[in-house]
Amino acid sequence: MKKLQLLLETKKNKTGLINQQYYALALAHTNQAEKAIPLAHQLLRDAPSDTYVKYTVAQVYALAKEWGSAIYYSQQLVDQGMSAEWFNLSAFEQLCPHTQTSEKLKDIICD
C-alpha cells in the first residue's frame, strides 16, 4: 500500500498518457473510484482507440465494481485479440459471475 501511495504522489500532477494511466490505476487500487473514474473518462477522450488505455479503463472499472463498464471494455479487448495472460488479475476474475459477461470473455478470464 505504501508503494501505491508513493505512486499517487509522484503521478498526481504529471501529464502524459502513461502517467495518467498509472495514476488512475493507483487511485482505483486505493479505493478512490470517485477520482479514478473521471480520469478514466478523460483517458478515453484523449485516446479512444488505444488498447492500453482501454485495458487501464477496464481495470479501473473492475476495481470500482462498475461491472457493466468493466465487462464492456474487457470484451472490446478480447475482441481485439488480447490474450488471457492480460486478464490474470483478481479484478477481472470478479467479472465471472455476472450474467452480462459473454461466454467468450468467461473462457478468457474465468477458471
What's the helix and strand layout?
Elements: H1 2-11, H2 17-29, H3 33-46, H4 51-63, H5 67-79, H6 90-93, H7 103-109
Helix pairs in contact: 1-2, 2-3, 2-4, 3-4, 4-5
Task: Give an overview of the whole structure.
- This protein has 7 helices and no strands.
- The chain is mainly alpha-helical.
- The radius of gyration is 14 Å and the shape is globular.
Short note summarizing the structure:
By secondary structure, this protein is mainly alpha-helical. It has seven helices and no strands. The protein is 67% helix and 0% strand.
- Parts with pLDDT < 50 across at least 5 consecutive residues: none
Structural class category: mainly alpha
The averaged pLDDT comes out at 90
Question: Major β-sheet, in short?
Answer: none
Helix content: 55-70%
The CATH topology corresponds to: Serine Threonine Protein Phosphatase 5, Tetratricopeptide repeat
Strand residue content: under 5%
What's the alpha carbon Rg, rounded to whole Å? 14 Å
Features of the shown structure:
mainly alpha; globular; 111 residues; 7 helices
